[in-house]
Amino acid sequence: MKRTHILLLVVLGVLLAVPAGALSIKRSPYTIEPPVSKGYEMPYTLTVYLGNQMVVAYDGQTQEPVRYMICSSGKGNITPRGTFTMPATYTSGWDRWGGVYVRYPTRIKGPYYFHSILYNASDKSLNMESWRKLGTKASHGCIRMTPLDAQWINYNCKKGTRIRIVNDRAEGLKDIHDRIRKELDRDGHSSVQPTLKPTPTPPPPIIEPGSTATVRIKSLQKQLRQRGFYNGPMSGNYEGATIAAWNAYQKAKGWAEDSIATTEEQTEMASDEETVALNVDLVSGDTGPIVFKVETRLKELGFFAGTPNKTYDQAAVTAVKKYQLAAGHTPANGKLLSSQQPELFSVTAPTPTPKPPLRLGSNGSEVKALQQRLYSLGFYAGAVTGKYQASTAQAVSDYQAAIGAAQTGEADSALQARIAGDNAYVGAARSLKVGSKGIVVKALEQKLSELGYFQGVPDNAFNAETSLAVKKYQKANALAQTGTVTRVVLKQILGL
Question: What is the pTM of this model?
C-alpha cells in the first residue's frame, strides 16, 4: 500500500489507523507548507498550528504528515512565530525549571522549548491543571505536549530540524484535536507516560572527495575539531584542510589514509574519546575530548580546580590564563594556541605557586578578593572588609557544601582557585533587587528565561526588566508581586 494512502496516528503510544478521509489537511492559501531547503537531511519537519493547538510532524522528504500531537502554546501571543532551525540536541528525562518539572525538553529557540505538561516540584506528580488545559493556550511561551509526544520529538528530531510556528488553523486538524483530547480524557493521564525506547540514529553516509552532504560534512568537521585535528571553519565542504584533518585522524587510529570517511569509521569516531591531536587553537565555547585532555592536564599541574567536563568554559579559561602566566606566554588571555600545547603536555611544564590557606583571623587583599567573589556568586552577604570573620567562614562552608566538599570553613589554595574561576555554582545567601549585581543575578535571569518570564539577555545586573520578570514569576506562584527576590524565593527559583 502506498504511503500516501496511509497515516499512522500515534496517540497514547498506540498506533491507530486513521480513515483515508482524514489523511489530507486542507489549508488556506496562506498556510501552504513551503518546501524544505535543498539538501535537507533531517528525517522530519515540525509545524505548530497555534490556531488548532496542534503540532504536526512531516516526513522531511515528502512533506506528508506522519504524527499529530495535541499541545498547549503560550497565553496570548507570547509564543514566537516564524521558521526556526532546531539549535541543539539535548536529552533529559526530567528537568527542573524553578518550581516545576518538565519531561523531555527540546529547544526551539532561546528560552522556548517543546516539552511535556508540568509536574510538581515536590514529588514529580503530574500538575493536573496543566493536564486539563492541554489543547488550549496555557504556557509561558513554550509548547507543552503529552510526555509521550515530547519524548518522540526529543528522540527523533535532532539538531537541524526545521520548525515552523504559525497562527493558522489547518482544516482537518480540529477533528483530530478533539479526538485526541477525548482519548486522553477516556484513558487518563497515566496512559501517556513514556514507554518508548530511543530511536537509533541512522548510520552516517560515506564521505569522500566530491561529497555534497553539507550537514554531515559539517558534523565531521566539528568532530575533528573536538578531537584537535581540524582548525578550519565549519564550511560543509569536503576538501583541502578537512581531508587533511581526516587523513591525520585515520593515521592516528592506524587506519589506511585514503581520504574516505566510511560509515564504520564515522560511527567509531563518534564514541572515540581517546584519539586527540594538538592542532587546534582552543577558545571559550569549544567542547570535546581535546578540551577534556587539556583540562585534565591543567588539573594535574595544579592550575585547574574544577572537574574536567569537556567544555572550555570560564573555569578552563581562568586555568589557562594562570598556566600562561606561569609559562611566560603573552598575552595570557586564556586562548590556548596549538603552539603552546606541546609544552603543556611535556615534563617541563610549569606548576603554580600555592597560595597560603585562608581561615579565621586572616586579613588582606586575598581575603577581600575571596569575599568579593563569594558575594558575586551569592554565597556571601556581608561587607567586603578583607577580614576573615565568622560570616566569611560560613560563606566558604556553604560553597563547600554546594560542591560536595568537606565543610571546614577554610579556603586552601585549591579552593581559592576554584572559587575564583567557577561560576557554575551559586548560592542564596542574599536577597536581590534592582541595583543588585553578580553572577547570581545572571543565574536568576537564566532560570526566569527558561521559565518564560524573562525576555532579555541574562547578565550580571538586576534591572527593571529583571524586576518585571520576577513579578510575573511571583504572580504565577501566588506570591506578593514585589519585584524583589528574598533568599527563600531565590532558593526556590534556582532549585537549591
Answer: 0.42
